[in-house]
Structures are given as C-alpha cells and as structure tokens.
Amino acid sequence: MTAGNTSMAGGMHIWGRFMADQNAIEKLKKTLLEAKEFSVVWSAFFDLSEHPLFMRKSKMVKHRAMEQIIGEICRSILNKENADVGRLIILRYANTEFYHGLLATEGIAGNFMYFEGVDTGMMVLNRAGGGECLFTRFHLVPVSGPDSYLAPSQGRDVHSVH
Questions:
Q1: Which CA distances in Å does 12 have to 19, 86, 116?
Q2: Is residue 157 very low, low, confident or very high in pLDDT (cuts 50, 70, 90)?
Q3: DSSP label of 108
Q4: Residues 6 or more apart whose Cβ sits within 8 Å of residue 61
Q5: 3-state SS, one letter per residue, for 19-80
Q6: What are the tens digits of pLDDT across the range 36-87?
Q7: How far apart are CA 110 and CA 37, in angstroms?
Q8: Continuous segment of H or E residues that includes residue 11
Q9: CA 121, CA 155: separation in Å to the nearest integer?
C-alpha cells in the first residue's frame, strides 16, 4: 500500500466517522422530538459527545437569539426574573442546524441542545449537592407584530424534575 493509499484510507475513516455522527445527530433529533423521558435524550447526547471527532467538528459561535432564549428559559425554570446566565458557550456542529453547549446560572451548571430546522431544543440544569436535575424541552414559534401574544405552554414539556 502506498503512502497515498494510506492517506486515502485515513480520510475514508474520518468521513465514515463524520457520517456516523451525522446519523447519530439525526437519531438524537428524533429522540428529542419524541421522548417522553428527558433523561433518555441526554444519555443519547452524551454518548454522541464522547466521540472526539464530534467535539472537533463543534465550533464556538455567537448566536444572539440563542443567548436570549437560554436566558429566558433559565429564568423560567428557576422562577427568578433576574437570574443571570453568567457563562454560556454555544457550539455549532459542522455547519449543521445542530447547536449545543454549556452554561452556568445562579451557581448551577447546565447543558443545552437545539435543532434550528425544527425549532426544538432541550436544557438541563444540575443542582450541585442535591443531585436534582431540572429538564425542559422547548419549542420556538415565530411571533411578530405589536398585537401578538403567545400563551405559556401548559403541556408536559414545561419542566420536569428528576
């Protein structure tokens, strides 16, 4: 085997891993949309994030709308109007519609994921010491105009404590 063939084989391995990650991301999206047990979604996400190529393909981005959304969700989950997201890292996977990241608010660490194409995401906040996790799935709906109003969800996606 020549050096060129070895390089090609290495490239094919990386491409195969990339495609496997793409398939895993599609499966994660389906799980996010359908799961009744939120911890199942996070287990699938953490399995995916253990792959080094997944993290190498995830790049830090600025996303002002996501920053605002994360802040609003934190305030809602914690029931604190002035809760501040002190640290927020937003990552985008390989120029896809999939965003994920880390955050800290009110001394609580958390993670989030969001699929832009289906305007759906999930967040988990982990209270230190108590072992309590606060999960929420969120759906974004475009609302425009001064006379627009969107009532808060009363469904099962509101907040789940585990």
A1: 10, 41, 29
A2: very low
A3: E
A4: 90, 91, 92, 99
A5: HHHHHHHHHHHHHHHHCCCHHHHHHHHHHHHCCHHHHHCEEECCCHHHHHHHHHHHHHHHCC
A6: 999 899 999 998 888 888 889 999 999 988 899 999 999 888 888 888 888 9
A7: 18
A8: helix 3-34
A9: 15
Tokens for 151? 């009532």
Residue 2, pLDDT score = 45
Instruction: Provide the residue count of the chain.
Output: 162
Scan for tokens 């090609």, then name that residue.
8
By the 8 A CB rule, do 115 and 32 touch?
A: yes
Torsional class of 148: left (φ above 0), alpha (ψ -120 to 50), beta (otherwise): beta
Dihedral, CA of residue 110, residue 52, residue 95 and residue 17, to nearest 10:
-130
Q: Which residues contact 137 (CB under 8 A, 6 or more apart)?
A: 32, 38, 41, 120, 121, 122, 157
Query: How many angstroms separate the CA atoms of 157 and 8, rounded?
Result: 46
> By CB neighbour count within 10 A (0-12 exposed, 13-18 middle, 19+ buried), where does 76 fall?
middle
pTM here is: 0.76
Angle between helices 3-34 and 38-49 (to 10 degrees): 170
